[in-house]
Amino acid sequence: MSSDHRKDWDTYFMDIAFMVSTRSQCPRRHVGAVLVQGKKLLGTAYNGAPMGVPDCLEAGCMIAEDYELVVTEGVEEMVKKQRCIRTIHAEQNLLLFTDRIDREGSTVYVTDEPCWTCANMLANSGITEIVYHRTYPKDSRKVSLMMAQKGISFRQLEQYEPPRETLMSVEN
């Protein structure tokens, strides 16, 4: 491959995040995350049940339903949110298996926009940038606002195309 066809760093690290996501056993969504400092890969993680515990494919999803009051242009609406509580999210696993010193000033590449809980954790982790591909509309507005308040660069790779072998259908 000539240098004319060399992938840029965002594509390179997002490709790795998508490859990591293929380790997930979640039937609803495969998510991968990678920690990068400069151009050095420091850690990878994916979503799944705790080690040694049956995952959703073996034991079924544990779906919890929450309701959230959302105000849009002065109009209040109750929004139902479903989430699997058997699964540890990729971003949470990444924080569990990397050191704070490595996270200081680093970038997290994640296949999906972080949920509110993961965004809160990432905001206090020492990272300075989050790069994602797929949106997570349920929490997008409030997560974007918090990242701006924290001064964390938060950007979507909209034109990115994941490696074909990593694709699965996802539920929003």
UniProtKB/TrEMBL annotation:
One of its GO terms (cellular component) is cytoplasm. Its cofactor is Zn(2+). The keyword Plastid does not apply. It comes from the Bacteria. Residues 8-154 form the CMP/dCMP-type deaminase domain. InterPro entries: APOBEC/CMP_deaminase_Zn-bd, CMP_dCMP_dom, Cytidine_deaminase-like, dCMP_deaminase, dCMP_deaminase-rel, Deoxycytidylate_deaminase_dom. It holds the Pfam family dCMP_cyt_deam_1. Keywords: Hydrolase, Metal-binding, Zinc. One of its GO terms (molecular function) is zinc ion binding. GO terms for biological process: pyrimidine nucleotide metabolic process. Zn(2+) binds at residues 89, 115, 118. The active site is at residue 91. Belongs to the cytidine and deoxycytidylate deaminase family. This is CMP deaminase. It comes from Paenibacillus lemnae.
